[in-house]
Amino acid sequence: MFLGMKELGLRLTVDGPVARVVLDRPEVRNAQTPAMWLALAGFGTTLPPEVRVVVVSGEGPSFSAGLDRRLIMGENADGEEPLLTLGAKPAAEVHETIAAFQAGFSWLRRPEIVSIAAVQGHAVGAGFQLALACDLRVVTPDARFSMREPALGLVPDLGGTQPLVQLVGYSRALEICATSRWVEADEAKELGLANIVVPAEELADTVKDLSEALLAPLPGAIRETKALLLGAADRPYEEQLKAEREAQERRLKELLASFG
What we know:
The protein has helices at 34-45, 69-72, 91-106, 126-133, 161-168, 170-179, 185-191, 203-215, 219-232, 237-259, and strands at residues 2-5, 10-15, 18-23, 53-58, 114-119, 122-124, 136-139, 144-146, 183-184, 196-197. By secondary structure, the protein is α/β, with parallel strands linked by helices. Helix 1 (34-45) crosses helix 3 and helix 5 packs across helix 6. The longest helix is centred in the C-terminal third of the chain and has 23 residues, at 237-259. One of its GO terms (molecular function) is isomerase activity.
């Protein structure tokens, strides 16, 4: 299945258990727009139940340079309002609007799918947060991450703050955000931002192999395991043990029913 969204700079496809999101604006290093975020949210809500892996990548030499700079600088771009105009609106409307934008990222963390970001070149701001929204990150040696929002007087608001802290710890996350510095591929691997660094010519094959490995176990087991891991940091140890017991009970019952 292919959803044609060329006018938005997206290619969204579903092929059996694998869905693909390709940011397709290489002429602007796959800069993102709010319209793209809303389209991604819609794609996430309409995924067929058989989809178990989602691969997110960028067309051309960059993953994503972040929000389209014209929208940051207060210009209208392709009929979209500049981001700064939100500041003149009532608080409830601002919150509702940003929540709709966040939904374009947060669906990638749902337990029933495992998401992979294939990152080459720049992953800046919203691009960094899109990579962070994914469960796994496969990157090339030229990959460069930067959280640019604080340098523009803004905060990262597309769901990237929690996974960044979970991956690298509070103090390192603060330093990365507060300085807006570049995190190169080797450091990203060392910090845990990247699962693996591979040559650019091996990126597609590595992601394919990883996708196939993720599809090998039974889907219910992966769904329950991801849910356990996502909640582990926020639960006391005894509650995590309880969650494991409950998840295992569900799996045992599902397996028993499948043999019945």
